[in-house]
Amino acid sequence: MPIATVNPANGETLRTFDALDGQETERRLATAHRAFRNYRTTDLAERARLMNRAADLLDADQREIARTMTTEMGKPVKAARAEAAKCAKAMRWYAANAARLLADEHPDDTDVKDSGASRARVHYRPLGVVLAVMPWNFPLWQVMRFAAPALMAGNTGLLKHASNVPQTALYIEDLFARAGFPAGCFQTLLIGSGAVEAVLRDPRVAAATLTGSEPAGRAVASVAGDEVKKTVLELGGSDPFVVLPSADVGKAADTAVTARVQNNGQSCIAAKRFIVHADVHDAFAERFTAGMRALTVGDPLEESTDVGPLSSEQGRTDLEELVDDALGKGATALCGGGRPEGLDRGWFYEPTVLTGITPAMRIHREETFGPVATLYRVADLDEAVDLANDTPFGLSSNVWTRDQGEMDRCVRDLDAGGVFFNGMTASHPALPFGGVKRSGYGRELAGHGIREFCNATTVWYGPGSDAR
């Protein structure tokens, strides 16, 4: 895949970039490693000052970088501005909280004495150079939720971004440089996917994080495992959206529309499978379908647009194949089901609701990365939980109920990294984010995320170690 900005709204190639050669990649690796040796000794107050400065610059650049993201991958420009604002918020959150999250831990005195020590502590140290392999769908947020905690912990970063968002990737490197971070603290590698293995195997790279497809995750995890290097993986999702009889059905249906089509439906944590109790199914289906049908599909640079194009022609083809397979095997489209009229240029697809889904259809098991929802009717909570778990993925989940017993049951039994009640799944810097099963492992954000790329060092002081 060429490294290029191709506008998905019209298919026009706007800019192309040459991949870095081996010599330049080596120079950047050396710079990142050299930067780490010094940057790791900076105090947290200085790192926080730099991070806050970067957040201020991002706020000032919000409209410009939002337009770049929209032009590169097609998200509505109003959503792109919100993404930039969310990144600045996360950067400030880590600047304010890193000292607390990385504070030394002190085991109980009784346990310390039992170990034979006069005192002991757990001290968090940065690992080193971390390689981030990132996707195009949230081209700023996906990177920043790694970069902010990693830099605050004292690591340095190398970014291998998706090849269709090169301008956003270069912007992030420039942002940290303008903020005053030492040279080499955060660099973008404009390289193809075939060059990732050599970078990951380089002994100067300590760890890796990847957000992306399951095949990409397996490839990175395999290489990292062979090199015995730490990885965090956030892969695909096919999140259930469960609606039970005690729910506010109108609010659930309205939220379901946003939960499905956020980012043009191209979000790992978007609700994709809508599992609704028979008692409220018809009311939910009517309102949900009306909401999906009412969405405005069009030019993502227009403020009135709700749903823009998919990021690539291949992405639309993949989605069409899933929908066509389902329709051919007996599913019904309550709305959508094809390309919208009047948008012949670009890679647009109609907001779609499918019902009558069976296990024989590919869409029952595979992730739909676009504005397509599958709707199921269930008889009770047992059937809802079984269906929600009938997927190889386990990223997050949504449950609509006012019954505390049902909430407790879902927390206990849903195979997911998160359970969101009476609201839409979303990521927030104060909450850990990640999944189970084929959705990956490890956690981003919160204290869990900043400590993923730290060495939890046990510091043990024997008798007589106290300074005199």
Keywords:
single chain; 468 residues; alpha/beta; 15 helices
Across the major sheet, the strand order is 11-12-13-10-9-15-16
- What distance separates the N and C termini? 63 Å
Tally of DSSP β-strands: 19
Number of helices: 15
Average pLDDT, all residues: 97
Main beta-sheet annotation: 7 strands, mixed
How much helix is in the residues? 40-55%
Low-confidence stretches: none
β-strand amount? 15-25%
Structural class: alpha/beta
The general outline is: globular
- Radius of gyration (CA) equals 23 Å
Task: Describe the fold and architecture.
The protein is 42% helix and 19% strand. It has 468 residues and is α/β, with parallel strands linked by helices. It has a 7-stranded mixed sheet, with helices on both faces.
Give the SSE layout:
Blueprint (H helix, E strand, L loop, with lengths): L2 E5 L4 E6 L4 H18 L4 H17 L1 H12 L3 H25 L7 H6 L4 E8 L2 E5 L7 H13 L2 E5 L5 H14 L6 E3 L7 H6 L3 E7 L2 H14 L2 E5 L4 E5 L5 H13 L9 E7 H16 L19 H16 L3 E4 L16 E4 L16 E7 L2 H9 L3 E2 L3 E3 L3 H10 L6 E2 L14 E2 L2 E2 L4 H7 L1 E8 L7
Parallel strand pairs: 4-5, 4-7, 5-6, 7-8, 9-10, 9-15, 10-13, 12-13, 15-16
Antiparallel strand pairs: 1-2, 3-19, 8-18, 11-12, 14-17
